[in-house]
Amino acid sequence: MRPDVLLPILAFDTSAAHCAAALLWDGGLILRDEAMAKGQAERLVPMLEEVLAEGGIGWRDLKAIAVGTGPGNFTGVRIAVAAARGLALGLGIPAVGVTRLEALAYGLPRPVTVVEDARRGELYVQTFTADGAGPAHLADGVVVATAATGSAAGDAALPPAAPLAEAIARIGAARALTPQPRPAPFYLRGADAAPPSDPPPVILP
Amino acid sequence: MTRTLTLLGIESSCDDTAAAVVRHRPGHLAEVLASDIVGQTSLHAAFGGVVPEIAARAHVERLDGCIERALAEAGISFADLDAIAVTAGPGLIGGVLSGAMMAKGLAAGLGLPLVAVNHLAGHALTPRLTDGIAFPYLMLLVSGGHCQYLRVDGPDEFHRLGGTIDDAPGEAFDKIAKLLALPQPGGPSVEAEAALGDARRFDFPRPLLDRPGCDLSFSGLKTAVLRTRDALIASKGGITAQDRRDLCAGFQAAVADVLAEKTRRALAMTALDGSPLAVLAVAGGVAANKAIRARLETVCSANGVSFLAPPLRLCTDNAAMIAWAGIERFRLGMVDDATFTARPRWPLDARAPGMIGSGKKGAKA
Asked: For the segment A46-72, what is each residue's pLDDT rounded down to a tens digit?
């Protein structure tokens, strides 16, 4: 019988003020979540090595990498995504991206809408039904017709079914069975950049 | 350490995403087996300068492709590498972090040592990659982001003699191009216009020539060109093609005068018992400007000093210089682990006093 997940898988996320990792294998799970506002770039790889050592395996035993792609802190997301792509290249195994919104919806009954604080008075919103995921978008406000989860979902919010890194690992382990694009940061906002305001001079004949 | 070394180099500190493979057999010139560079000019064109967030977004999605192409072009596999060298600063931190994390992941996956390289050391050691010259030598690093004179005494020994207290000349060329509706990058377009212009029509300042030493400044020169342009526009509603050529020629002549005189002083400052260092090497895109280069060559020949300009592809940002600097450090036993920090600011010479205007967080470079 074909397995329905690719294991062991190492998952990690640095899209917010934390460095989180999960090692998932057939019959076991190790979770690590360290709160930190900065320093993820220095801490990430040593922490992953600690998690592997605790699981009694080495880098070469991994079958896949999963990484949280945001939305979240731009720099934090790139730290994890770049490391995941480097690891995948070095190990010759797939790396798959899982968005924060997908991870938050993991394991919850469908339909469910994820409503996350996006700062600047905006929200990240995505609805997941039995058929799959709707489009993720940025909104000023939202009226949710389904059950809801996430940091801005209000008092009736469902608690997450699994810690973030575990959810990324479990989604990634299923996704990694089929060819996937290389993980890329999931941005719902464009880069802050404006074209120059001063017009070029008129060139006279 | 006397064995042959093969290193992968990774560079992403500004707007070029690059990977390269360099092999060095002791006693021989190093070989650049591959050097892959993907520029971002078109991504930033609409903004009149490099936008850090746009640059970082591009680096993180392009680095692994660059690395794969470099290995394929070199005809080697990861198993043939001895270590991975990566730019750890100074530069735009989003890009530096992308490269650093790519390298940390790759090194962990392959079980290879990491070498964290200062981007400026990469430029400063390039004459040894291309020509195998001996220490010490004088280096003029003159690019879009940097301008400084360095006495290079060893792979990790740099003495800064002076540098810009505000803008880099390459940035000034880009700005002038923008002011005059010329295409980016500004270096080649301003140079082409200047070749057709009269450098004596406008009298632009030669900043800091009246002060001793070899610090430089280009901010006031930029402003002078802007004021002159605005005066022309005010008088007739625009500028003519000939005005533009003359503005470019005047500006370029001022930059060349300043760099020539400061180079003469840097040679004098590094002279021992009356004889200067044997070689002045240049790096950075501005070294490609023929007028500036001719002036520097004149200063060198007048002082009996050899002038060395590496080929342009190794003079502007590239990863071969990072791989080479990594080889030099690796041979001295200088390796790093996955806890090294990516640094936006990282002066090569920590002993030199901070430059004026270098900010409360310390000197950038």
From this structure: 999 999 999 999 999 999 999 999 999
**Residue of B101, B110, B182, B222 to mutate, interface with A, max A Cβ within 10 Å:** B101
Q: Any chain A CB within 8 A of the CB of B241? A: yes
Per the domain annotation, does B360 fall within a domain? no
Q: How many CB atoms lie within 10 A of CB B111?
A: 11
Range of the domain at B61: 5-132+317-331
Indicate the burial class of B38 (C-beta count within 10 angstroms; 0-12, 13-18, 19 or more): middle
Residue B250 lies in a domain: yes
Q: Which residue among A49, A86, A201 sits closest to B106, beta carbon to beta carbon?
A: A86
* pLDDT per position as a tens digit, B136-153: 999 999 998 899 999 999
Residue B357 lies in a domain: no
**What's the CA gap between A112 and A127, in Å, rounded?**
6
> Cα separation of B29 and B358, whole Å?
37
Contacts of A39 (CB under 8 A, 6+ apart): A19
| Residues on chain B touching A85 (C-beta within 8 angstroms) | 60, 63-64, 102, 105
Note whether B29 and B174 are same-domain residues.
no
Is B236 in CB contact (< 8 Å) with chain A? yes
CATH code (residue B167): 3.30.420.40
**Residue B105 to residue A84, Cβ atoms within 8 A:** yes
Segment 158-187 of chain A within 8 Å of chain B by CB: 182, 184-185, 187
- Find the farthest-apart pair of alpha carbons in chain A and give their distance in angstroms, rounded: 78
What confidence score (pLDDT) does residue B363 get? 63
Handedness of CA A52, A53, A56, A61 (dihedral sign): positive
Name which of A87, A192, A202 is nearest B238 (Cβ-Cβ).
Answer: A202
Same domain, yes or no, for B190 and B290?
A: yes
**A59 secondary structure, DSSP code:** G
pTM of the model: 0.94
Residues of A in contact with B67 (CB under 8 A): 89
Q: Over pLDDT 90: what percentage of chain B?
A: 85
The fold for domain A1-107+162-190 equals Nucleotidyltransferase; domain 5 (3.30.420)
**Token pair in block for residue B8:** 């992968």
The ipTM, to two decimals, is 0.96
B124 plus B144 within the same structural domain = no
User: Which of B104, B189, B223 to probe the A interface (max A CBs under 10 A)?
Assistant: B104
Instruction: Say whether both B163 and B279 belong to one domain.
Output: yes
Question: How many structural domains compose chain B?
Answer: 2
What pLDDT shows up at residue B200?
97
DSSP B340: P
Residue B120 lies in a domain: yes
Of A80, A88, A201, the CB nearest to B180: A201
